[in-house]
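Example 3.2
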Amino acid sequence: MGCHMNKNGIVSKKANKRDAGSFLLFVFLLPYVCACLWGHVGEEAESLKKNEQEDDYLVEASVEWGVWEMSLEEYLAYRLCLVMPGDYEPEAKKAQAVLLRTEMAAVFAEQGGKKAAVDGEGIAKFYKDAAGQEESLKKSRQAVEETEGVILTYHGEPIRASYFRVSNGSTRDAGEENCPYLSAVPCEQDREAPDYHSVVRVDRESYIEKLQGILGEDIDGQTVWEKGKFSFDRTGYMTRLSYIDGDGEERRIDGETFRHLFGLASASFEMDREEEQAVFHVTGVGHGFGMSQYAAQCRAESGESYKEILAAFFFGTELTKFE
């Protein structure tokens, strides 16, 4: 018979019952429909979130309170604050950020997967002492963000991303160490750096004792003091110190080990033997391979981009995305 109205426009009682039943059924089923619909959407959102996390590279930094897990880019921002002065130019910071990311790309390749374990002592200390470092961290984050994903490669592989504070007037040549992209680069501007020159004095007794600790105590003190042969590369950095022992065998210590043994800023030095002291006149800060940070800063001040800076220090390399 159906729904009908009387002449006064009032719905009949039969129609009221049918509509009321439909409404109650809708109300009853609504929670179920919503649960299915929104539950499905929620599952998709969680799945997307999970996939996004799986695509991220993560760093697990070992610190005194446990393991600090963070994204690669966040880790790089802290590292950049630690290894480069905060007042350096943005393009110099970008160049350094690329080198740090390249360094980590090699770590990920070595450890496998998308998580890498590192020593977090340095960044943990920075985090604790971060008061007053907000501006520096902000600039570092910007440099990392503006070079997001960029690394430096040679023949498709991440390079040995070497960097240091100040050269002795030139970077070093590492071509013989299977790094043809690391050739000597003149850095005359480094001679103007505030920490370009330093002097270190070592007591004769301490000098002999420390070298005997590495070379062997059977080499007598007089020989250690007077007869060692220093060798330097063509850019003026010490490569080794060698002695001939009583059996005619050569004993040696490499330049980097030697300079750390006596607290020298670099292995570029001249040594004077006074009666009771060895006096080292040191030039530069760091090992001398790769990018001089001070020279990079000078280049940035002159208007060079981070791409130009990196090209100047790493020959034949390419900027690529770290996938």
